[in-house]
Amino acid sequence: xxxxxxxxxxxxxxxxxxxxxxxxxxxxxxxxxxxxxxxxxxxxxxxxxxxxxxxxxxxxxxxxxxxxxxxxxxxxxxxxxxxxxxxxxxxxxxxxxxxxxxxxxxxxxxxxxxxxxxxxxxxxxxxxxxxxxxxxxxxxxxxxxxxxxxxxxxxxxxxxxxxxxxxxxxxxxxxxxxxxx
Length: 181
What we know:
9 strands; 35% strand
């Protein structure tokens, strides 16, 4: 799900953020600090492509919903005008959203990852209908849930939608980190 044009310092930036999370562990001493006891909220808003910050490209407010009992995670978008809500490449004709959800069990060294891609939506229309992206996760999970949202722009060429590869227009960010109560 990582943007094809993610920049070369992604690993460094993500490592630095994870190190800051670990340093936020106030329970353990240096050398014994744990990621899960740190400030994982530092990951929220992490942009995978700093050349295309998600909130600068997608200016439409969205919400997320995690139902641990049912085992579902959703991103909800309202109806919006693409001319006002999205900054897109000049030649783009369509876009699609991608949501990825990881359920991480650090104690068991295990994870579940699931993703979904929206239908292609025309950029040059009056309104984009409200939409919900939903994926399933293990029901009643008692481990952290990480949600990422990405956007991909496409150009219609001879009745075929072709992805536009641009480091300035392939945003992806971590939108939420949720721990069980």
